[in-house]
Write a structure and sequence with these properties.
555 residues; alpha/beta; TIM Barrel; 8-stranded parallel sheet; 16 helices; binds 1-O-alpha-D-glucopyranosyl-D-fructose; binds calcium ion
Amino acid sequence: MKKTWWKEAVIYQIYPRSFMDSNGDGIGDLKGITSRLDYLKYLGIDVIWLSPVYQSPNDDNGYDISDYQAIMDEFGTMEDFDEMLAAAHERGIRIVMDLVVNHTSDEHKWFMESRKSKDNAYRDYYIWRDGKDAQTPPNNWGSCFGGSAWQYDEETAMYYLHLFSKKQPDLNWDNPKVRQEVFDMMTWWCDKGIDGFRMDVISMISKTKEMPDGEIQGLYGSFGPYCVHGPNVHNYLQEMNEKVLSKYDIMTVGETAGVTTELAKQYAGEDTHELNMVFQFEHVEGDGKYGKWTDEKMSLTTLKKTMSRWQTELYGQAWNSLFWDNHDQPRAVSRFGDDRPQFREASAKMLATCLHMQQGTPYIYQGEELGMTNYPFQSPDDFRDIESINAYREWCAEGSLSHEVFWPCIIYKSRDNARTPVQWDDSPQAGFTTGTPWIAVNPNYKKINAKAETADQDSVFHYYKKLIALRKANPIMVYGKYELLLADSEELFVYTRTLEEEKLLVVCSFCDHETSFTIPEEFAGASCLIANMENAYDKPEMTLQAYEAFVLLKN
Ligand code: TEU
Ligand code: CA
C-alpha cells in the first residue's frame, strides 16, 4: 500500500463561524483562526479542513457561495486568508478548502445571469425545467432542507432545481463550460498554495437526463436514484483529476452521501484517479425515525458491523476517512458516548480511542478534542440552522407531529449542536468573542474549555494529544489490518490491528456499568499503549469500568 502524507495525517475541521472571533462582532473569522494556530500545533494535528470562507449570503452558513474567489465579508479579507495560510504553513499545518460546487448561491453572478432569460449565455449553467403549471413543479422531489426541490422563477416562468435551499441552485455539470469554470477556480486556489479540497456533496454533481417522480420518503419524493452517483460522476471526477488535482501535491476527500464500499473503491481507489478518500455516512445515518430526526442511539452491534465493513472491504483498495462528528452532526460524546457529568470525560476518551485506532485518516471536529457536548436547546428560537428551522416547521409547527414527540428528536440531531462556539476559557462567552455570539455558547463552558484542559494532563484534550502522537510513532495505527472481535457484544467494541509482527488489541466499553473481559492468550504480557483509566493487564480476566478503553501492543 502506497505511503502518503494524507494517509498518516490527523485532520482538524474548523467551522469558521464558530471557531474564534477576533473583532467582537460575535462571528468567528480568519484572524481568529490565525490567533489559535499555536493551540492546534500543540494538539499536534497536521491538516485543517476549513469549512467555506468564500463570499456568501449565508443562507446555509457559507455553503451557498456567491463568489468562489473572494472572502466572506464577515470572515475578513483575502489578505487575512493569505496571512492565515502562511501562518499555518510556518507551523507545518496544511490547509484543505471546502469545495462546494454541486450548487452556488442564487446571488452568484452566474445564476443572476442565468435567470434573466431562456437564451442567456449562462442559462445552461443551471438546471431549468417546465413545471406541469406555475403551481406544479416538474416532479415530486423534496429538498434536503424541506419543501420541493424545485423553485418557480417568474422571470422566465420555469423551475430551477435546488437539492438544498432555494438559495442554492444546482449547477449543471453536464455543461462543459461549468466544469471548466470550476476547474479554473480550483487551479487558482491551488496556485495560491492550498493543500487540497473537501468536496461538498460531490456524489450529486451528475444527474440523470430523465427526472421522473421519486419514491415518497417522508413528505416528498426522493431524488436519490436520479441525483446521487449519477451517470457521469466518475467521468467528471476523472476529468477534474486530470485537469487539476494530478498537477499538485494535494489531498482530496469527497463528501459522498449514500456511498457504499463498492462505490468508494471507484471514488477513492488507489489507482482510479478520482479522489484520495471519501466520507461515508452509514454509521451516522440510518438511525432516523422521522427522516433523519430521532432521539434513539444506534445499537452497538449495528455500529460495529457498519464500521467493520468499511474497515475490511476497503483495506488495500481504497482509503477510509474516520469521523464521529462534523458541522452537520450532533456532538460525538452526546450521541455515541454519554454526556452525563460522571461519564462524559471517560466516554469522550473511549470514543477517541475507538476511532483513532482504526484504519484510515482520522478527523477531529472543532471542540471534539475538549469533549464538548450537545446544546440544551429550550425553544425553536434557539436554532440558527436552516435545516433545523425548516424541519421544525415542516414536521411539527405545520406538520403532523406534536412538539412532545418531535422536540426530543430535533434537539438530539440538530446540526446546531456542533455549531455553538468553541469553548476557549471560562471568561464570558467562553473567550470566543467579546461581543454577542451569533449562536449561544453552551452554558457548560465554565468546566469544559481549552484553558482548563490544556492545563490538565488528564483531560480529554491531552488524551487526543497522546493519540495523535502515537499515530506518528506507530505505523501499525495507520497501515495495520483490522479485525473485529466479539461481534455480538452490545457492550464492548473490541478489534485488533496487525502489521507484520506487531499486533494491537483495542478494547472499548460503550456501556455505563462494569463489564468483564478476557484478554486473548496471544496478548498475555503485551504492553499497554494507552488507556483512559488505571487497570492491570497482567491477568487474562479483567473487570472494565464504565466506558473504559485501553490498547495493548504486542511486538
Ligand atoms: O452536507 C450534505 C448533506 O447531505 C447534509 O444535508 C447532511 O447530510 C445533513 O445535513 C445531515 O443531517 C453538505 C454540507 O456538509 C452541509 O453543511 C450543507 O448544508 C450541504 O452539503 C449543502 O451544501
Ligand atoms: Ca468576527
